[in-house]
Amino acid sequence: MSSRALSFGAIANAYERFRPGYPPELFDLVMTYAGRPVATALEIGAGTGKATRLFAARGVAVTATEPDPAMLAELVKHVPANVTAVRARFEDLRPGAVYGLVYAAAALHWTSPQGRWPRVAALLEPGGVFASFGGPVQLADPAVRDAVHAARAPFLDSDEIPSPDGTPPEHDMQWPGTELQRSPWFADVRQVVIGRRLTMSARDFVGHLSTISAYLQLPAAKREQVYASILQVLPPTVEIAADLTAHLARRRP
To answer: Which residues make beta-bridge pairs with 4?
Structure first.
């Protein structure tokens, strides 16, 4: 898992270009859950700052942590002045400053499970909020999706990341909510889905695939082959289902 976690730096520009950003509804959801003003936040695995911008643009002073120097360099090009960029793995952060919000945008699964929740709790004010959000970007048309799976199959069985704790996809509560419910550090665990439909060109969809860790682990020649095979079966424009699943929890006093 760690090699996949550190595979993004080589494609930082593509990550910034092809990964979708986060909608205002997500900010509203987190702040409504918080139920009080949130002045400071720490972001785990900020990438190129897609989620950083959502919170910072609305007045939250964000400390954005990211272990990959190329991703962090891309982030600093796009974020406002109230963002502090720090090169660090989540596991290397030491207790000190505490925040009203700690969050991870499609990054928590890259962190080590050992000591994860005590470490998050140590970074939060009592009553502070933890939020994790993300979700797959999938083709909305089942026929197109099946054609892409067939084109991909000779090179890659799946491009998905399995649930870190093995929770079946049909369960009402998904990871990390399942772990948060078991943690003595957190209460009031909630799972909320924000529906999203996007439209993009076929080339942009393949560009998005080029930022997925499963493809990045393939040899370069095979990557180019699978991208070409997928592009051949796509219509010029594709509809994307990009629902966001947010997990929210409150640090116990």
So the answer is: none
Q: Output the CA angle 195-161-105, nearest 5 degrees.
A: 50
C-alpha distances out from residue 220 to 4, 85, 223, 225, 244, Å:
15, 31, 5, 9, 30
- Over the chain (253 residues), the average pLDDT of each successive run of 10 is 53 95 98 98 98 98 97 97 97 93 97 97 97 96 98 96 94 98 98 98 97 94 97 98 98 95
Nearest partner of 128 among 3, 250, 1, judged by Cα: 250
E strand or H helix that includes residue 199: strand 197-201
142: preceding bond cis by omega (within 30 degrees): no
Q: Give the relative orientation of helices 220-233 and 142-152 as an angle to the nearest 10 degrees.
A: 150
**Within a domain: 216:** no
- Residue 244 is predicted with a pLDDT of 98
**Hey, which residues does 236 pair with through a beta bridge?**
none
> Which residues form the domain of 50?
2-136+160-196+243-251
First to last CA, the chain: 33
Residue 68 domain-assigned? yes
| Calpha distance 194→29 (Å, rounded) | 9
Angle at the Cα of 242 from the Cα atoms of 239 and 246, rounded to 5 degrees: 165
Element at 245 (helix H, strand E): strand 244-251
Q: CB atoms < 10 A from the CB of 216, how many?
A: 18
Q: Which residue, chain included where needed, has tokens 């997925």? A: 212
Q: What is the pLDDT of residue 95?
A: 81
Q: Is residue 205 part of a domain?
A: no
Who's near 143: CB < 8 A, 6+ residues apart?
A: none
Per the listing, tokens 């970074």 go with: 123
